[in-house]
C-alpha cells in the first residue's frame, strides 16, 4: 500500500520513547490523534470514533509498558482489542431453526447493494450445511431480478420459487412457504425488492411480509464501498423494520471497511458475513479480529 498504515504511524509516533515505564497522557493523546484520523479516513462514523477514542484513552493512560513491547505496540494492542470488542468479539452464525422446521429468512437492502447475489451465495452455504434451501423471487419491480435469481439458483443447484411480477410480495412469500412445507425445503430465503434510496413503500412492503409471515431472521445487505451511507442505511432499516444481522458486501474493493466498525456500534446487530467478490463462492464469515487488523492496516 502506498500510504503508511495506522500501525506504522503509531510506531513512528512513539519512536523516540523507550519501551519502559508507563504510557503518559501526552503520549496516548498524541497517538490517539493518529488513530482518530485513520478511523475517519476508513469511514468510521464520527460518533463511534469519538466514543472509541475515549474508551481507548481511559484504558491506555497509565498502563505499564511491558518490556517486550514498544509503547507504539502497546497502544496498537489496546486499539485492536477495543475494535474487536466493538464488533462483537466472536464470529456470529445465522440463527436457523431445527432442520425439521422451516426457517424463513428475509433479505433486504437497497438496489445495487448485492442482495440478489448474496441471497444465492447464502443458499450455497446452507446447502453445504446439509439444509434444503428455497430461493424466493419477491422482487416484482425488476423483471431482471427474477431472472438473475433463477440463473444464480441454477448455478448453486438450488430451487427458485417465482410467481412472476403480477403478485404482491407478501402473497408470493406465503405461497413459497406452503410450497416449501409440501416439498421438504427447510430454509426459505426471500429476495425482496430494493429501491435506489430508502423509501416508505419499500419499508411498508417489508413490514407487510414481517406481519404476515413468520420471518425468523431479517438480514440486511449493505455495500461496504458506500462507507458512512452503509451505516445510515443500517440504522434506518433497523429502526423501521428491525434487522437481526447484516451482510457487508464488496469488501474485496479498496475500502478499509470502517463501516463494519460503525454498523455494529450503531445498530447493535452483528455482521454475519462479508461479500468478497462477484462469484457465488465469494462469501465469508465475519471475524471481528480479522476486520480490526484490516482497519488498522
Ligand atoms: P441487488 O440490486 O442488491 O440485488 O444487487 P445485485 O445482487 O444485483 O448486485 C449488484 C452488483 O454488485 C452485481 O454486479 C454483483 O455482481 C455485485 N456484487 C455483489 N456482491 C459483491 C461483492 O461482494 N463484491 C463485488 N466486487 N461485487 C459484488
UniProtKB/TrEMBL annotation:
Protein's name in the database = Signal recognition particle protein
Q: Which GO terms describe its biological process?
A: SRP-dependent cotranslational protein targeting to membrane
Tell me the domain of life: Bacteria
Q: Which GO terms describe its cellular component?
A: signal recognition particle
UniProt keywords (A-Z) are: Coiled coil, Cytoplasm, GTP-binding, Hydrolase, Nucleotide-binding, Ribonucleoprotein, RNA-binding, Signal recognition particle
Question: Gene name on record?
Answer: ffh
Q: Which residues of the full protein are shown?
A: 1 to 297 of 448
* Residues covered by the SRP54-type proteins GTP-binding domain: 270-283
Q: Which organism is it from?
A: Anaeromicropila herbilytica
Give the main localization category: cytoplasm
Q: Which GO molecular function terms does the record list?
A: 7S RNA binding; GTP binding; GTPase activity
Q: Describe its function.
A: Involved in targeting and insertion of nascent membrane proteins into the cytoplasmic membrane. Binds to the hydrophobic signal sequence of the ribosome-nascent chain (RNC) as it emerges from the ribosomes. The SRP-RNC complex is then targeted to the cytoplasmic membrane where it interacts with the SRP receptor FtsY.
Q: Does the keyword Coiled coil apply?
A: yes
